[in-house]
Amino acid sequence: MTLRDTADQIIRASLRAVQPDAAVARALQSFSCSGRVVLIAIGKAAWAMANAAWAALGTRISSGAVITKYGHSRGPIGPLRIFEAGHPVPDEAGLRAAQAALELTRGLREEDCVLFLISGGGSALFENVTGQLLACGADIVEINTIRKRLSAVKGGRFALHCRPASVFSVVLSDIIGDPLDMIASGPAAPDSSTCAEALAIAQKYGLRLSDGALACLRTETPKTLPNTVSRVTGSVRALCDAAEQAAQALGYRCIRLTDCLNCEAREAGRFLAAVARTHASPSEPLAFLAGGETVVHLTGSGHGGRNQELALAAAEGLTGLTEAAVFSFGSDGTDGPTD
Question: Are strands 113-118 and 37-42 parallel, antiparallel or unpaired?
Fold first, then answer.
């Protein structure tokens, strides 16, 4: 195989290992409810997670909504309403979908349950937010610290809305360290961030916010949510584990550089190319692995996402090398606002 063939094989094997179907089925083994079950799924893996939940629970699910990125739905699922909306730049479709989710979970009883399925992209899809945050170079934790305060559903407010019903969350994590209050901006998790931190982030990046938005940043979020239970079923670390196993099966000796990478995508690309150059023409096949959450700092009007920027930055450093390859991918199969 060529190096490109090898890379593609590792990517496919890694993605198969972290698909949400089995993860959701495992998490639901501890789920029980004596009343109505309302399913709400948000994020780029929302359809797959909801489909797995329907396969496991069937008609025990009385109603619900699936909110995912354009092109990520693959057809109807039982009685669930399917919504597609903009990501990473939110749009009015996302706002309407969030309003529908709030309506579906209004007036629930104490014996009822909300089965809440959360995956990457949930924050942008579950209501709207200014595009300034996506262009300023802020990391995902900083972005979500702001987003959760400009929302009626984030920062634990969705769980408050569902009371007195209980909320059982199944979470596919896309953030380093799996902080429940930051994944999708924590709609069903107590918020560990503070108003002071949110205001400091706004000042750090010079965000242009209205008086109403600033007032929202000064409004504190819930710090306790006794009606919630959460199960984290996926993470960057799990994806790195799968990639390592796939590479080892192809005869590579693996070196995991990190599974908590947090830097500019272009800097990560340059670094990985430098690693490849240092270890060019090894006596044995080597595979260097890095997982995490890179960011892109927009300075023009270009298109793409973090994976394309990382790859382009790495390409310069690979010039002249014939026995090295760098590949970058995300577990959702898309990159930023492109295909």
Answer: parallel
264 DSSP assignment: B
Q: Which two tokens stand for residue 335?
A: 């990159």
- Name the H helices within the chain: 3-17, 20-27, 46-57, 92-104, 122-125, 132-135, 140-147, 157-162, 195-204, 211-217, 236-249, 265-278, 306-317
Q: Where are the alpha helices (DSSP H) in 234-279?
A: 236-249, 265-278
Cis peptide before 285 (omega within 30 of 0): no
Separation between Cα atoms, residue 49 and residue 119, nearest integer Å:
9
Question: Side chain identity at 86, as an amino acid letter?
Answer: G
Crossing angle (nearest 10°) for helices 20-27 and 46-57: 50
Residue 50 Cα distances to 38, 115, 228, angstroms: 11, 10, 19
Rounded to an integer, what distance in angstroms lies between the CA atom of residue 144 and that of residue 173? 14
Q: CB-based contacts of 271: which residues, under 8 Å, 6+ apart?
A: none
What is the value of pTM for the model shown?
0.75
pLDDT-above-90 percentage for the chain:
60
pLDDT digits (tens, 9 = 90+) for 230-280: 998 878 888 899 999 999 999 999 999 999 999 999 999 999 999 999 998
Asked if 105 and 21 touch (Cβ cutoff 8 Å), the reply is no
Tokens, residue 140: 């995902």
Question: What residue has token string 């270890």?
Answer: 279
